[in-house]
Amino acid sequence: MFATFPNGSLVPTSNRLANLLDHFFTETPFERPAAPALPLAIWDDEQKVVVEFDAPGIPEGGFDIALHDNVLTVKAERKPREGASYDSRNYGSWEQSVRLPKTVDANAVTANLANGVLTITVGKRPEAQPKKIAVTAQLGQ
């Protein structure tokens, strides 16, 4: 949904009333949509690939993580808080897959949840890591 400023430019609106009205006229009223994909960050270095998901409110045992054919798949569900009188957070099940480089080692995967951030670290195969070559000098030649 967009709003128009006096100068004629269009800007996206993010107010809750506009979202509610849009939801009311396009979907079943007051039915909560599925939870969106969680924000993530991916980076790698010579030894590993790291994938981080922002996952507040999902407990340690609430994740299903799999690595198959270099595709990392993470599934989870966030459930609503019992007895809340107001809650605007998203709830529901979500699944997200990330294709990793062919150099990853499926036997070297760890997952850690700290402060609402799920960090999955996947090691790279030894043959994919750079080899250090030492230089030796011969004296007198």
The helix tally amounts to: 1
Which regions are unreliable across 5 or more consecutive residues at pLDDT < 50?
Answer: 1-5, 7-11, 27-34
| Number of DSSP strand runs | 9
Kindly give the count of domains.
2
Largest sheet: 4 strands, antiparallel
* Overall CATH architecture of the largest domain: Sandwich
Shape: elongated
Concise structural overview:
The chain is mainly beta and 141 residues long. The chain is built from one helix and nine strands.
What does this entry look like structurally?
By secondary structure, the chain is mainly beta. It folds into two domains: about 30 residues, no CATH class; about 90 residues, Immunoglobulin-like, CATH 2.60.40. It is built from one helix and nine strands; from the N terminus they run ββαβββββββ. The strands form three sheets. A four-stranded antiparallel beta sheet has the order 3-4-9-8, with no helix packed on it. A three-stranded antiparallel beta sheet has the order 5-6-7, with no helix packed on it. Strands 1-2 form a two-stranded antiparallel sheet. The longest helix is centred in the N-terminal third of the chain and has 11 residues. It is elongated and about 85 Å long. The protein starts with a strand and ends in a 17-residue tail after the last strand.
Task: Lay out the secondary structure.
Layout: E1 2-4, E2 10-12, H1 16-26, E3 40-44, E4 48-54, E5 63-68, E6 71-78, E7 92-99, E8 104-114, E9 117-124
Antiparallel strand pairs: 1-2, 3-4, 4-9, 5-6, 6-7, 8-9
